[in-house]
Amino acid sequence: MPTEVRNSQWGSDRLWNRIALVAGVFALLICVLLVANYIQIKKSDPVNMTVINSLVERLYANPADSVLRKDIRTLDLLSRKAYFTSQWQIRTGGYLLLALIAIMAIALQVVEYRRKINPVLSPENEDESLLQRRKARKWIVIGGGSILVVAVVFAILASNDMAARLNNLSRGEVAVVEDQPVINPTDNAADSAGVVTDTAAIRDTAAAAPAVIASTDNFPNFRGNAGLASKTNIPVSWDGASGQNVLWKTALPLPGQNSPIVWGDRIFVTGANASKQEVYCFDRITGKIIWTVKVGATAKKPKVSEETGLAAPTGVTDGTGVFVIFPTGDVAAIDMNGKKIWEIDLGLPRNHYGHASSLMLYKDNILIQYDQTSSPKVMALSAKTGKTVWSTDRPVKVSWSSPIVVNTGKRTEIITASEPYVAAYNPASGQELWKIDCISGEVGPSLAYANGIVFAVNDYSKLSAIRLGEQPTILWENNEYLSDITSPAANDKYLFLSTSYGTVVCYDAVTGEKYWEKDFGKSVYSSPMIVEKKVYLLDITGVMHIFNADKEFKLIGEPKLGEYSACTPAFTNGRIYIKGESNLYCIGK
User: Fold this and answer.
1) Which residues pair with 464 in a beta bridge?
2) Which of 15, 211, 296, 426 has the smallest number of Cβ neighbours within 10 A?
């Protein structure tokens, strides 16, 4: 080979070798930085938990300190920014590491290829050179693979450690801004936010409207029509202490974080303790308990948090029966006269807070979102017999979010939220229709729906607006204010989101533009409801914040119940039914 050609090839090989060397050095540097990031997270307190915990303890001792409460909220927002910054650094570092290792591999491959087509070695040295190159490639592969594995392991550890700290933070430290017990996201994560407020309307699958409208004065499932209630003459003032506009008040036999559901002249709630589980039917006019039915075996004792309790999920009714589920995995159907139709045992759900996802109905099937640590799934049971109609396994994590049933105008879909997906299923067969990777964490809030858009949110994740269609797409996203407990509510113009520490935000439902934010200074675990162009939002002290569902904030009233509450109210024409810690209230004019 001529000297000029040999020199040219040698110079080109040297360039590629240098590219490989530089890429390898930078890959090693990024690996070191990711390891250092993990060590820094373990040694330091990137989300200010020590400081926040100290402030929370002080707030318990002095709950009236508004300045202290403001400091806690400020640190909460800073913690969110720290979390998202850390996640960005980990993702960016991972992408750069993969790119650099790819560049290094490509450069070495180019050098090897050029040597094959333009050998410059003498025959006596060729075998030795090939052996050396093979050894070099072997160690490069081992070294590069080791760097990649180490970096990925430490990146995952750092991300999980941050997520765990922030998960603990959102589950019980930052959310405490009042002198009240801390309520777990499962308390109100059961809000099913179903788009249908009348089961008879659910059965009308031929309807062409974007959402099915209730035809009777019922409230058969959580949060009515995706946080909307098509009711009229709803009161805006009452007082629990004096009895003003309180038509009746009835003591609850057993505690439970579920909310009331209504059909005709009947109201249904559930309650439970360590020894029994019960379903209660109240007379809607008088408030008297008409019947009580026990459900399940008392020997079963699932491990649930004290705050979640043993009756977090809310049932559903179709006017012929009421269907309930408990954290023990017991599911039952009871007719309107209190006769048990059937009862089945799904087995103890395996999650660390307790099952809290509420039930929904589609035609003659009961829909259950059963996300747990083993075999998460969505399933349908026959309302008549309790037998499994279909069951669809899905690769998701534990959640407490409830399914919603949406009629898009072309078809009816069950839509669910659990890390990492918002996913839709055919309610007749359980077949997956679509899914979008857009949510993370142990999802507490349920979905909202209005005007062809689904809204999904979770704390330390993001708020996503998804436009439905043959191929659903992300319309807009935001991560400024996020909810770990309450579900959002939307109409065709606006989206309203409440954080657990009492800040409410109004967005343009289509563009995501933020119109206003309001801090009520009270912890909130009940989800907002939109009724008669007004938003009703109940805080844990029992104060109902009522304001216009508009792009400009206008407060209408703040009537007081006088009792702790973490449950979303039910609405009928002229009435509000509020479940407190100890009593069920009927509010009306």
Assistant:
1) 456, 477
2) 15
Amino acid occupying residue 5: V
What residues contact 164, with CB distance under 8 A and at least 6 apart? none
C-alpha–C-alpha distance, residues 328 and 349, integer Å = 7
Nearest to 319 by CA among 385, 266, 382: 266
Other Cβ atoms closer than 10 A to 155? 22
The SS3 call for residue 137 is: helix
- State CA 319 to chain mean position distance: 30
Lowest mean pLDDT among 153-162, 367-376, 389-398: 153-162
CA distances from 518 to 219, 481, 533, 547 (A): 29, 12, 18, 11
The DSSP code for 208 is: -
Higher pLDDT among residues 204 and 311, named by residue: 311
DSSP sequence for 336-379: TTS-EEEEEE------SS---PPPEEETTEEEEEE--SSS-EEE
- Residue 208 reports pLDDT greater than 50: no
Q: Is 193 left (phi over 0), alpha (psi -120 to 50) or beta?
A: left
Helix (H) or strand (E) holding 548: strand 544-548
Q: Would residue 226 be called left, alpha or beta, if left means φ above 0 and alpha means ψ between -120 and 50 degrees? A: left
pTM above 0.85, yes or no: no
Residue 196 pLDDT: 43
Q: How far apart are CA 36 and CA 296, in angstroms?
A: 52
Q: What is the CATH topology of the domain spanning 186-588?
A: Methylamine Dehydrogenase; Chain H (2.130.10)
Chain centroid to CA 22: 43
Please state the φ and ψ torsions of residue 584, each to the nearest 5 degrees. Answer: -105, 130
Task: Please count the other Cβ atoms lying within 10 Å of the Cβ belonging to residue 2.
Answer: 7
> Cα Rg for the chain, rounded, in angstroms?
29
- Alpha carbon of 153 to those of 146, 478, 543: distances in Å? 10, 29, 48
CB-based contact 59:69 (threshold 8 Å): yes
- Cβ distance 278 to 295 under 8 Å? yes
SS3 state at 260: coil
* Token representation of residue 139: 């160690």
Residue with tokens 């020997």: 299
Number of Cβ atoms within 10 Å of the Cβ of 126? 12
Question: Strand pairing of 289-294 and 316-317?
Answer: unpaired
Q: Give the whole-angstrom CA distance, residue 306 versus residue 286.
A: 32
Spatial CA neighbour of 357 closest among 414, 409, 291: 414
Residue 342, exposed/middle/buried by CB under 10 A (0-12, 13-18, 19+)?
Answer: middle
Residue type, position 454, single letter: V
Domain ranges of the chain: 3-172, 186-588
Contact 465, 511 (CB under 8 A): no
- CA triplet 413, 402, 409: central angle to 5 degrees? 20
